[in-house]
Amino acid sequence: MPARKIIIDTDPGQDDAVAILLALASPEELEVLGITAVAGNVPLELTARNARMVCELAGKPETPVFAGCDRPLAHDLVTAEHVHGKTGLDGPDLPEPSMPLQDGDAVDFIIETLRAQPEKTVTLCPLGPLTNIAAALQRAPDIAARIQEIVLMGGAYFEVGNITPAAEFNIYVDPEAAEIVFKCGAPITVMPLDVTHKALVTSSRNEAFRALGTPVGIAVARMTDFFERFDKEKYGSDGAPLHDPCVTAYLLQPDLFSGRFINVEIETRSDLTRGMTVADWWRVTDRAPNAMFMGDLDADGFFSLLTERLARL
Ligand code: BDR
Ligand code: CA
Question: Is 243 tagged catalytic?
Fold first, then answer.
């Protein structure tokens, strides 16, 4: 089978970094056509920098990296330095990137790629706020029918929220964008907090990364060391959730995940629950299903896959 073509849309972010590394470590299955940076965990200038640092860490400086939207569609940017540190990628000691950012805008790259490639052969993998994807859909509505699938990290049902009591960060930062994406008609698979909070980097799992003894293994262990301090305090859990790698792991081994094909709507109006993913998990409405909403994963299988792939870099 030819490798599946993907565009990773991202706001690195230590967990975004691990998701990118997992994809770049798997060229037989995944062809990364490009990485598009968006403002989210930290401002755009830093996410565009961090994405390139990760490509260089992976030994893949030829990966095209584009910068996209520097703010959400309708509101001011909310960032998450309290989780990811000042640079967004605090923890490991990585050099400033020397590979260039591509000329041109990430949104145009997404549009042009979807138009240039055969219909339904490109999968979008958003790991941050959905601003770039929504901007592309607004600018070029024809691309919706050309998308193979959108596999995204965002939202929550049982776990409700992590940035407000009702909302998960990626959706909260740009709910108007999320609404456009969830209504676009392309096949959507969602990795909500319900799944990602089960992908916990326990100390033995982190030791397995460190024990790889490679620059990648050591950097990933240091990234996790850094951001787990926040999650341990907040949730009292044994280790931090690796949210975004669930997206790339799903592309490699979908049977690690299970969920339901249901209706998911985005709350954009309420001050109290803005950015909530109103997921009809119990199918109590007759609203048409629009997303495969995951609920569970095989955490041991996920970490075996991740560790085995990181070892290849
Ligand atoms: C999401 O928010 C970001 O902080 C992480 O990178 C992840 O994409 C989790 O809510
Ligand atoms: Ca992210």
Answer: yes
For ligand 2, the distance from its centroid to the CA atom of residue 87, given in whole angstroms, is: 14
Q: How many whole angstroms from 241 Cα to the centroid of ligand 1?
A: 10
What CATH number should be reported for the domain holding residue 281? 3.90.245.10
Q: For residues 293 and 157, is the Cβ–Cβ distance under 8 A?
A: yes
3-state secondary structure 198-211: CCEECHHHHHHHHC
Going from the C-alpha of 179 to that of each of 11, 17, 172, 278, 290, the distances in angstroms are 19, 26, 11, 11, 12
Based on the structure, what is the number of domains in the chain? 1
> Atom 4 (ligand 1): residue with closest C-alpha?
41
172: enclosing H helix or E strand: helix 169-173
Q: What is the pLDDT of residue 313?
A: 96
Q: Read off the pLDDT of residues 72-100 as tens digits, 9 standing for 90 and up.
A: 999 999 999 998 999 999 999 999 999 99
- 149 phi and psi angles, rounded to 5 deg: -165, 150
List of the chain residues with pLDDT < 70: 230-237
Provide the domain limits for residue 50.
Answer: 4-310
Pocket of ligand 1, beta carbon within 6 A: 13, 15-16, 41, 80, 83, 127-128, 153, 162, 168-170, 243-244
